[in-house]
Amino acid sequence: MEHHLEERTERLIEEGWTEDAARAEAERLFGDLHGYRDETTEIAREVTWRRGIIDWLGDLGRDLRWTARGVRRNPAFAGTLILTLALGIGGITSIFAVIDAVMLRPLPYEEPDELVSISLAMPGGISVSFLPTDQAPLWQEGMEGALATAGSERLQLVRTDGEPEALAALAVTHDLDDLLGIGPRIGRAFGTDDAVAGAPRVALLTHAYWVRTGSDPGITGRTIRLEDEPWTVVGVLPRDFKYPVAGSIDLWIPVWSDGTAGGHPVSRTDLVGRLSPGVTLELAQERADALAASLAESNPASMGWEIRLRQVGEWRGNSDLRQALWMLGAAGALMLLIALVNAVNLMLLKAQSKARDVAVRRAIGASRGRVLQAVLTESVVLSIVAGGAAALVAAVAMQGIQRIIPDDFAFSAVYPFMVEGRAVLFAFLLGVGGGLVGGLGPALWSATIRTRNAGTAARPQGQGRGRARARRLLVVAEVALSVTLLVGASLFVRSFATLLDSDPGFDVESLAFLNLSLSRRVYPEGIDRRHFADRLVDELEAIPGVDGVVIAQGLPPGGGGILFSDALEAEGSSPMEGFNIVPAAWVPPGYLEVLGVPLVAGRSLTFDDSGTDNVVIDRDLAEALFGAGTAVGSRFRFGADDEWLTVVGIVEELKLGGADDQTGDWALLRAQEEEGLPTYVQIAIRVADPEAILPAVRSAVLAVDPQQPIRELWTAEAAMGESIARPRFLLVLMTTLAGLALVLATIGTFGVVAYSVRSDRRATGIRIALGASGTEVRRRILRSGLALAGTGVVLGLVLATGLSRFAEGLLFGIEPLDPAAFTLAGLTMLAAAAIACWIPARWAARVDPIEVLNAE
Amino acid sequence: MGGSLDVVKGTLEMLVLTTLRNGEGWHGFAILEWISRVTEGSLEIEEGALYPALHRMEKRGWITGSWGVSEKGRRAKFYTLTRSGRESLARQEENWSQYADAVARLRAAARG
User: Fold this and answer.
1) Region A114-137: what's the mean pLDDT?
2) A393-404 average pLDDT score
3) Could you give the maximum distance between any two Cα atoms of chain A, in Å?
4) How far is Cα A558 from Cα A720, in angstroms, rounded to an integer?
């Protein structure tokens, strides 16, 4: 436009106008100068923007083709890069999926922020999340207006139509589903009518149980028999819904107004609450404090109890579990970091080999930005592919994780452990992020290549020195990170070995354990259960090979119960400081013999000890209470208000609580009542080959009562194995991650050493020509490679020293700074690095000087 | 016919395209000069209106422009007709001749 005005003005001047007048006339002829200028500017802006996108897409297309060409030309590079990143990202993605299911993903309930868990803190630091059922209405009333509450309790009911099967039922207050805001997937929810004592018995099936029994779409209205009574199925719960209670649940049944679920006593209730509109957690807590005070007044036994309200989200995962998960997450992150370092290393190598290509592109006019974009596109494309592969890796890993994940993890998860949606997105984002981060360094380097280097850039001389140093540093970092992970894994290996080695204090190899839940309907009284058990014992003793059978209330792991005290007191001493937990069992005569627990001093228990204060304790507890001297005949008590217990015998250290019991692996045995038995019956069978007799035991149970389901029947080793599920889980995951890290670090070291061997061929050739022997050449390369690895190992050990305390509390029997674990980790890495250096060192020794010098 | 005709909006584009058909690299002033010379000044174009039209057509891809230096050493943008501009011009000419034809028939009929 300016050009136009100038031309016109000039014309007018030629026609005889004065300069100023000509300019004015030109503008007049032009018209609305400002309007036209704005209009054109606007159009021009749109054009530029569009063209920018089109150009960019065009460039992108070219870059993608460039990438594809590169992949075709060198599939090994692309494959290695993708595999490396896929392992790194896949590892952390599977861990992320577990962490997500356990504690990150929003709870699948309506307005989860309003939900509060209610727990009862008793004096002595014990806190429980349940109440005696008869107290639940008091609480519900007391909190009215501030908090709507609902409750649940797990029961076992035997399905009696067809093969007897023990089902896990959740007895719920009829409004629990309403409070959580979940409706059934099929059929109807429970209503107030279902909760009236004597109402027709109704049940809601969980989705899993419904699927297991054939996914009958017309299930609503069907009748199933539980404990020989008809129950009408009114609906099926949604698939993704998992109420966090221990173990899997097969069906929900409503609690009646008489405190039973269809006549089955519900002794305690887990309460969950929803804050009423406008009520804050603090306000509700004040009401709860007032309620606790008034309850203490009416019932002195509840003196000192505190009612604690917490947002439901907060209890997701107890502190142990969180620690274990975060530690695995950190291990996964280290592993990812190692994969990234390896990827950067690979990209740098690649950038170097492409240097000539890039220099040519620069020479024919590609801008620095274009080169940067091209190289970044390549790394991002590859890492997005890696992200996809990582999701697959994670899905496969999850199959394995599901198999070994401990119950307490599954218990805390409100979602199934699966790699889907969020985890896939996580992998994808890591892929893109990893590509950008990992590709940026090499890309920036490529962008600095100048035209005049076109002929020489492919050579590592000169400018290559800085890059070689960068790559060495990367190897050191990689080795250091791997050593850190290896230390972690070694700690868990050592911990697990210690755990397996630790003597549980009984003959774990020659025992089978049988656990039964007897129905109160079939066996109403303790004496009925005793008669059943006695007949069963006769059957069991008749099985060939069986050396002894004993009915106990308390077998390892877990014992019959735990006793706790914050003032454990030996007679004549002051009470012990701190809170102590003592696993206990109620045992008949013969318990020690059948389990093979050696008696150290005194005598074992007889039925004459029933109802007395006589106890047998294990050696640890005796030493803790009475010191090194003999304790037989001494007395102790759990608190000032408790009875004195007299020690009549001492046994070897017995891990009644389970193999990994760390709270104080003590044991206390009291004499069982001669007569009645509780509904939960545990039987220990002594036999040379426990695995072999399990079918015979099953037949024996059915012979006594064909309707009686078996709750657990396993060898003692398997039973104790259950208590090592978490250490085993941590062990497997940590060693897998560390193993992969080791492989990646080894490959990384190999890559750098091999590359330097190749680029130093000339120098090596000259050296050999001047008389250096193969051994000397090899030694030289080994030395420089191991110097790198050694530096990494030292750094890694230092790093591990700082980090290992995060594993404290998850380890059994060893300290976080266990010297053996550190040594093991360091030596493993050095050995792997030595192999990684040895191979290229041999190549170097075989360099033919004549060939090399001729090539120049 | 005295005076000059206002250029009907929309026909300006056709005029510009027609001009550009003569060869590559026209700057705005040259386009106007050419139109005015060929039509002997019988078409009155508000000169400034040319420029938004040029930008619009560039955006549509009918013409492409690139900066250069004019014969008098001034910086100016030079426009060239594209293939799609050529096609568009053909369509517009077709429309125009149909329109002119229709007007001619109408006048003939009115004269009776």
Assistant:
1) 67
2) 81
3) 139
4) 9
Residue B11 clears pLDDT 80, i.e. is over it: no
Interchain pair B49, A31: CB under 8 A: yes
Tell me whether residue A112 is exposed, middle or buried, using C-beta atoms within 10 angstroms of its C-beta: 0 to 12, 13 to 18, 19 or more: middle
Question: Is residue A527 a contact partner of residue A839, using CB atoms and an 8 Å limit?
Answer: no
φ, ψ for residue A72, nearest 5 deg: -65, -40
- Per-residue pLDDT tens over the stretch A202-261: 998 888 888 888 888 888 888 888 888 889 999 888 876 666 665 678 888 888 887 788
- What's the count of helices (H) and strands (E) in chain B, helices before strands? 4, 5
Tell me the two tokens of residue A220: 């609503």
Q: Which residue has the higher pLDDT, B62 or A451?
A: B62
Quote the minimal CA–CA distance from B97 to chain A in Å: 30
| pLDDT one-digit tens code per residue, A99-114 | 887 777 777 677 777 8
CA distances from A189 to A135, A180, A231, A254 (A): 25, 12, 15, 10
* Rg, Å, chain A Cα set: 37
State residue A457's pLDDT score.
43
Distance CA(A483)–CA(A808), nearest Å, equals: 18
pLDDT of residue A127: 58
Dihedral angle sign, alpha carbons of residues B56, B57, B61, B64: negative
Point out the residue among B52, B70, B77 whose CB comes nearest to the CB of A39: B52
Nearest residue to A813 via CA among A685, A655, A605: A655
d(CA A454, CA A53): 30
For the complex shown, is ipTM > 0.85?
no
Q: What token pair was written down for A79?
A: 């494959």
A47–B59 CB contact, under 8 Å: yes
In chain B, residues with a C-beta closer than 8 Å to the C-beta of A43 are: 52, 55-56, 58-59
Residue B2's pLDDT is what?
Answer: 38
Which tens digits make up the pLDDT trace of A142-151? 777 777 777 7
Element (H, E) at A225: strand A223-226
Neighbours of A81 (CB within 10 A): 26
Whether residue A7 and residue B51 make contact (CB cut-off 8 A), yes or no, is no
Asked if B47 lies within 8 A of A39 by C-beta distance, the reply is no
pLDDT of residue A449: 63
Handedness of CA B65, B67, B69, B74 (dihedral sign): positive
Contacts across the A-B interface (CB distance below 8 Å): 61
Whether residue A262 contacts residue A231, with contact meaning beta carbons closer than 8 Å, is answered with yes
* 3 state DSSP class of A226: strand
pTM for this one?
0.64
The single residue listed with the structure tokens 């897409």 is: A57
Pair of tokens at residue A398: 């999850």
B27 touches chain A (CB under 8 A): yes
Q: How far, rounded to the nearest angstrom, does the alpha carbon of residue A193 sit from its chain's CA centroid?
A: 42
What one-character DSSP code corresponds to residue A276? P
Query: A44 and B55 in contact by Cβ < 8 A?
Result: yes
How much is the pLDDT for A130?
64
Q: Is B28 in the A-facing interface, judged by CB distances under 8 Å? A: yes
In 3D space, the residue among A703, A706, A299, A732 whose CA is nearest the CA of residue A536 turns out to be A703
CA gap A396, A127 in Å, rounded? 39
Check if B60 contacts A (Cβ < 8 Å): no
